[in-house]
Design a protein that fits this description.
Blueprint (H helix, E strand, L loop, with lengths): L1 H10 L10 E6 L12 H15 L4 H16 L7 H15 L2 E6 L7 H12 L4 E5 L6 H6 L10 H21 L9 H12 L3 H11 L6 H9 L7 H12 L4 H16 L6 H8 L25 H8 L4 E6 L2 E7 L2 H9 L16 H19 L15 H7 L3 H14 L6 H5 L5 H17 L1 H13 L3 H19 L8 H4 L1 H25 L7 H5 L12 E4 L16 E7 L4 E8 L2 H4 L15 E8 L10 H18 L8 E7 L2
Parallel strand pairs: 1-2, 2-3, 9-10
Antiparallel strand pairs: 4-5, 6-10, 7-8, 8-9
Helix pairs in contact: 2-4, 3-4, 4-5, 7-8, 8-9, 12-15, 12-16, 16-18, 16-20, 18-21, 18-22, 20-24, 22-24
């Protein structure tokens, strides 16, 4: 309806007026901001962008925008605040003349009450005409607006429009042979009006359903004639699922995955991401090449968009946005709610196959993510060379789903414990098969040794915030700790050992991030070089890029050191590719006590180890004056950090040999 109003306003503009009216609009959309509702400042930015576009040749308007931009630049500010956006709109009113603002789905705004207050404050005393569309559940509308400003569109007001809508589509269906030519159009219209009960969303879905290829003309007639009482939207969704349950098993499986991703993805997937994860791949796809290559044409859908809409029974649609990639989404928020809350742990009817419980769906999504990494990403450096970083743009083109798979599979595992009743989860009602498959793929993933390194490179390639890596590792650890509290006696013995292995892996990842996080964020490909040589883990393989060799056979007290270093610091030389790493190891006695500064009597309990590396060529590194100065400068830095005096215990010197 809002789109029709905007279109009518545009068509009614009189080009001979002295001031051509400005018509701006914004449509809020459920889950458009990575699964969350958009904030009101999103609407303000869009409205100002439309204004700028229409008045791009108006000198006065351009000067106002230029002044606002230059003011922010002088203060080092890159993005306008909400207050600045509102001030800009208020200032521009006198330059614009007649101004119409249309805002749709106000109830989908993340802070609708603030939006109403903002608009009142910015335009309350100015000649700006604002039209808001919303469900009646926004309390602020009735509090801030006078009764004469509110037009409620109820069933009685919809009846005539719905009648025209049904008559138009029934005529088309009869002309195309979708319905028999002998059909009584007037009677069918009355039946459809009874079923719709004033809901245009019901009417739209019913017309789409009647055009489904799986129905014969006489079946379509039967559906319409059976409408003798009002229906709700859930009835339509169940009828559509009943039709989908009669399709081939392979089509049902793809449809279920499609519904699962649209309902429970951590954020809305782009069309390319969804197509990438739903397109089947050969089991040996990752073994065919040592580097990531484009998917062969024979492995692609010929028409994924058409297939997805048909397989969903027209419950999904493609949506495009001005400043972001297009996505697939349910046609209405009620469809999303239907799949999210109607899940059943046991399949009692064919329809129930499409309505798995939330905790099972999350495990299925985690399984698909891990399987994608195993099958679609080769066990080798992403760029094909351990000395070159992968290009994010190329990765996103060739493997659009790689980013989501790498960053979100632990969260789907974790969500299984939060999305169902404790009794259902602890006994894994209705999902033991997928739990076993998923734990098995996690175990295979950890045993591979190359795949964990690939995954580390992937996650540091796509995630540059340090704290989010810490959260990811904690999520893995928490899931493994939780699942160990459940009854896993039904799992094979070898799979019961997977959760403890995940805990150990999460600990190694935390250690890796603590000492090498900054390095990996800057260059994720370093996981294939020095990192695994100096930070060992049973889950990683040390590559041929570097091996560490001690210059001394032993050191007094070295066997008694702690397993966790007190601190680590590094320096690199871009001109020579040398990297120096100094590690301070406390004794087991010192490490068992918590302290803020090293006590004098504890200094001799510390072991200092210097390691030197070079990323290319074969070199034996002499401990020359330049290297010694680098190490001593790092020693001085650590002395300052921990309050150690210049007197210190002897170094355990180490150097490195490279291949």
């Amino acid at each position: 309806m809002a789109a029709s109003v905007v279109q009518q306003l545009l068509e009614s503009v009189d080009i001979h007026q002295n001031h051509t009216p400005l018509i701006t609009y914004y449509f809020f959309e459920h889950g458009s901001e990575n699964g969350k509702s958009a904030s009101c400042d999103k609407a303000y930015r869009s409205i100002l962008a439309q204004l700028f576009h229409q008045f791009q040749n108006d000198r006065d308007v351009l000067e106002l925008f230029s002044f606002a931009i230059n003011t922010k630049a002088r203060h080092g500010q890159q993005v306008a605040t909400k207050r600045e956006l509102l001030d800009a709109m208020r200032t521009l009113v006198s330059r614009v003349g007649v101004w119409f603002i249309v805002i749709d789905a106000l109830d989908e705004c993340g802070d609708e009450d603030n939006l109403l207050s903002d608009l009142t404050e910015a335009f309350g005393d100015l000649s700006v005409q604002i039209l808001l569309f919303s469900r009646p559940n926004v309390r602020g509308l009735r509090k801030k607006l006078e009764p004469q400003q509110i037009l409620t569109i109820d069933r009685s007001r919809n009846a005539e429009d719905l009648e025209v809508y049904f008559e138009t589509h029934l005529t088309s269906l009869i002309d195309r042979g979708v319905l028999p030519s002998s059909a009584d159009k007037e009677q069918l219209t009355r039946n459809l009006l009874k079923g719709a009960d004033g809901m245009f969303q019901w009417a739209r879905l019913m017309i789409c359903h009647l055009q489904s290829e799986g129905l014969l003309p006489w079946q379509r007639l039967g559906i319409i004639r059976s409408l003798t009482t009002p229906e709700n939207l859930d009835d339509v969704y169940l009828r559509i699922l009943g039709l989908l349950s009669k399709k081939a098993i392979s089509e049902q499986s793809l449809t279920r995955k499609l519904f699962g991703w649209l309902t429970f993805a951590e954020h809305p997937l782009t069309t390319h991401e969804l197509q990438d994860i739903l397109t089947p791949s050969p089991d040996d796809a990752s073994a065919k090449s040592s580097r990531i290559c484009p998917r062969p044409q024979e492995e692609e859908f010929t028409d994924f968009e058409g297939s997805a809409i048909i397989l969903s029974g027209s419950l999904i649609e493609k949506r495009s946005f001005p400043s972001s990639l297009p996505i697939y989404a349910f046609v209405h928020k009620s469809v999303h709610d239907f799949f999210r809350w109607r899940g059943k742990p046991v399949i009692a009817t064919p329809i129930d196959y499409f309505l798995p419980p939330a905790h099972r769906t999350h495990v299925e999504l985690a399984f698909q993510c891990l399987s994608y990494i195993r099958r679609r990403i080769p066990g080798a450096p992403l760029s094909g060379s351990m000395f070159e970083p992968a290009q994010i743009g190329a990765l996103n083109r060739m493997r659009p789903f790689a980013s989501y798979a790498a960053l979100h599979w632990p969260y789907h595992l974790s969500n299984m414990s939060d999305s169902a009743a404790p009794t259902d989860v602890s006994s894994f009602v209705g999902c033991r098969d997928i739990i076993e498959d998923t734990v098995s793929v996690v175990g295979e993933f950890l045993l591979n040794k190359l795949l964990p390194m690939v995954w580390v490179e992937l996650k540091y390639t796509f995630q540059k915030e340090s704290r989010k890596h810490e959260l990811l590792h904690k999520t893995m650890n928490d899931w493994a700790l939780w699942i160990q509290t459940c009854d896993l006696g039904w799992l094979p013995i070898d799979l019961q050992n997977v959760p403890p292995a995940v805990i150990a892996f999460a600990e190694d990842l935390s250690t890796l991030h603590r000492f090498w996080g900054d390095t990996l964020i800057d260059g994720p490909h370093h996981i294939w070089q020095d990192v695994t040589a100096f930070t060992s883990s049973s889950f990683f393989v040390t590559t041929g890029a570097v091996t560490v060799e001690s210059l001394v056979s032993a050191s007094p007290g070295w066997s008694g050191r702690s397993t966790v270093p007190l601190s680590k610091i590094s320096r690199d030389d871009p001109e020579t590719d040398f990297l120096a790493v100094l590690t301070v190891w406390p004794s087991r006695y010192v490490s068992s006590r918590i302290f803020c500064a090293i006590l004098p009597e504890q200094i001799r309990e510390l072991t200092w180890r210097a390691e030197l590396s070079k990323s290319t060529g074969r070199h034996h590194l002499p401990l020359g004056n330049g290297v010694q100065q680098t190490v001593y400068s790092m020693v001085g830095q650590l002395n300052m950090n921990y309050g150690i005096s210049d007197s210190m215990s002897p170094f355990l010197w180490r150097t490195a040999v490279y291949h």
